[in-house]
Amino acid sequence: MATKKKSSTKKRGFWRTLGLIILICFLLSIFFTVIFRWVNPPVTPLMVIRKVQYGYPIEKKWKDIDDISPYMVKAAIASEDCYFLGHNGFDVIALDIVMQERKNGVRKRGGSTISQQTAKNVFCWPRSSWVRKGLETYYTFLIETFWSKERIMEVYLNVIEMGPGIYGAEAAAQHYFNRSAANLSPRQAALITACYPAPLHRDPSHPSGYLSRQAGIIQGRMSRYGNPKFTDEYIAGCQKRYKKAVAKMEKRRKARKK
What we know:
Elements: H1 2-35, H2 45-54, H3 70-80, H4 92-103, H5 114-123, H6 130-146, H7 149-159, E1 161-163, E2 166-167, H8 169-177, H9 186-194, H10 209-224, H11 232-257
Antiparallel strand pairs: 1-2
């Protein structure tokens, strides 16, 4: 009887300890998400991993979004997430397109939003796995809850990898074009953005034919999206347009099933 009681006590102790660890991790995730609403993340897991794996330096200089060329914002939205100001962190339209492409045997592409990429860069690691995807989803929900869209874009443009050891718009602008991020031209912003899928292997200051064409496509899209703003009124308009686009997508989906 004594042995059974000890075993039962150990089990209860184990589950209490596990529950306490989970609670602490949950509270810390909330704490750091809220803190990073105002405090700039000093370093990201990817920066540390690149430093350890390849010995890359960590070139970065934080800039407020007002000190970054608006063309970088337009290029990011045009290239990475055209519904950024309308969705709540997850773009069901992009996911639907990805699913259809995979069904049709088209080359796979990602459906991650700028919010998801920001969550991954700040809180997670680069290697894909179900665990990381789960954490990425969780942190995307948190930053969409506690941060503004402007803050998400600001963090994104300051932490994203833009070359070997180069992070953020300011470091990229200085490294590739010898100018500040505030003074980037539309073409330069498009060239830097075109490197995002493979920043370790592309150089916007010496673009290949492929990179130049991709930058041209991004520039064309930039002209269609006008001048995105972070005012409540503008975002509300984007949310309405996104809801309409989702409704149209649902109609197309139902039509495909018939």
